[in-house]
């Protein structure tokens, strides 16, 4: 991981969080999809592998936006393979956009932490345990990483894609991880 940034809400202590959420930590991964039929099995397998090897309790929420390529069918098969307690398909009938897909996924998340990822394999799940470790170290509400600082980068992108996405080098996060209580207090 090239760089991690953290944020802490001053309103709650670790003890207050434990009293509010005494359950074992559970991580809900929001995975919005649109035409990701080919990538979905691999990203789900990588997520399951990363969580299983780390002993982390998780669920993966796939929010498909009416993909015409059969992504929903693939997601249904993955739900059967890994179980509906681990893979939750929460599809929408048409393409409504990434932001609303995240909100839709948050409404179905049962974890006390939410991880936002892309399904196009631009974010590798192997870094999730590092995010979790960082969160636990400082009791942070938000942990965010970027592939555009330090030793990060984008591999396999041709020059055209790098130029088109040059704005990403300034602001786009690698992925985000946050306490679900934070979303609830902000009425998300």
From TrEMBL:
A Pfam family matched in the record: Glycos_transf_2
Keyword GTP-binding included in the entry's annotation: no
Pathway assigned in UniProt: Protein modification; protein glycosylation
Domain of life: Eukaryota
Self-association and partners: Component of the dolichol-phosphate mannose (DPM) synthase complex.
Any one GO molecular-function label of the UniProt entry: dolichyl-phosphate beta-D-mannosyltransferase activity
Family: Belongs to the glycosyltransferase 2 family.
Occurrences of domain Glycosyltransferase 2-like (ranges): 28-170
Species: Homo sapiens
PANTHER family reported for this sequence: DOLICHOL-PHOSPHATE MANNOSYLTRANSFERASE SUBUNIT 1
UniProt gene name: DPM1
Role description: Transfers mannose from GDP-mannose to dolichol monophosphate to form dolichol phosphate mannose (Dol-P-Man) which is the mannosyl donor in pathways leading to N-glycosylation, glycosyl phosphatidylinositol membrane anchoring, and O-mannosylation of proteins; catalytic subunit of the dolichol-phosphate mannose (DPM) synthase complex.
EC number: 2.4.1.83
Compartment(s) of residence: Endoplasmic reticulum
GO cellular component: endoplasmic reticulum
Main location: endoplasmic reticulum
InterPro entries linked: DPM1-like (IPR039528), Glyco_trans_2-like (IPR001173), Nucleotide-diphossugar_trans (IPR029044)
Protein name, entry field: Dolichol-phosphate mannosyltransferase subunit 1
Catalytic activity: a di-trans,poly-cis-dolichyl phosphate + GDP-alpha-D-mannose = a di-trans,poly-cis-dolichyl beta-D-mannosyl phosphate + GDP
CDD domains per record: DPM1_like (cd06442)
Keywords: Endoplasmic reticulum, Glycosyltransferase, Transferase
The keyword S-adenosyl-L-methionine is annotated on this UniProt entry: no
């Amino acid at each position: 991981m090239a760089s991690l940034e953290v944020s802490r809400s001053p309103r709650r202590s670790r003890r207050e969080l434990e009293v509010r959420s005494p359950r074992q930590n559970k991580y809900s991964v929001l995975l919005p999809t649109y035409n990701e039929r080919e990538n979905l099995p691999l990203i789900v397998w990588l997520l399951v592998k990363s969580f299983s090897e780390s002993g982390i309790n998780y669920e993966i929420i796939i929010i498909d936006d009416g993909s015409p390529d059969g992504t929903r069918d693939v997601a249904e098969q993955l739900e059967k393979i890994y179980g509906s307690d681990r893979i939750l398909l929460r599809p929408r009938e048409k393409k409504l956009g990434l932001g609303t897909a995240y909100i839709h996924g948050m409404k179905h998340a049962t974890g006390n932490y939410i991880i936002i990822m892309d399904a196009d394999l631009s974010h590798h799940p192997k870094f999730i345990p590092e995010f979790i470790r960082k969160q636990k170290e400082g009791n942070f509400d938000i942990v965010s990483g970027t592939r555009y600082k330090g030793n990060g980068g984008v591999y396999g992108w041709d020059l055209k894609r790098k130029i088109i996405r040059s704005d990403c080098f300034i602001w786009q996060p690698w992925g985000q991880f946050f306490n679900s209580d934070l979303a609830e207090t902000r009425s998300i």
